[in-house]
């Protein structure tokens, strides 16, 4: 299963690559699909590409659901 993960853009370089914070873990992501994204925006990232911008409320709800899902999966995997 593939999941898009929500995170917050903390920096953008000159080739449209962002550093995205996923609750304390940072990774790079391409902004080629949403070039209008800016520092401080929340985005969904899949396979290294930001694929959608989220408003803060939507981002918080998505992160909450993601955390709940990960807790369920963690408890089911032997």
Describe this structure in words.
It is a single chain. The protein is of the alpha+beta class and 78 residues long. The chain has one domain: Roll (SH3 type barrels). Helices cover 27% and strands 37% of the residues. It has 1 helix and 5 strands, in the order βββββα. It has one helix at 56-76; strands at 5-12, 17-21, 26-30, 42-46, 49-54. The chain has a 5-stranded antiparallel sheet with strand order 3-2-1-4-5, covered by helices on one side. A hairpin with a 4-residue loop joins strand 1 (5-12) and strand 2. The protein starts with a strand and ends with a helix. 19% of the residues are buried.
Question: What layout of secondary structure does this protein have?
Answer:
Blueprint: E1 5-12, E2 17-21, E3 26-30, E4 42-46, E5 49-54, H1 56-76
């Amino acid at each position: 299963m593939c999941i898009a993960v929500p995170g917050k853009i903390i920096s953008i370089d000159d080739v449209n690559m962002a550093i995205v914070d996923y609750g304390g873990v940072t990774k790079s992501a391409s902004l080629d699909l949403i070039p209008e994204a800016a520092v401080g925006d929340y985005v969904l990232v899949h396979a290294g590409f930001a694929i959608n911008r989220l408003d803060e409320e939507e981002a918080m709800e998505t992160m909450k659901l993601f955390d709940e899902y990960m807790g369920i999966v963690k408890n089911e995997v032997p």
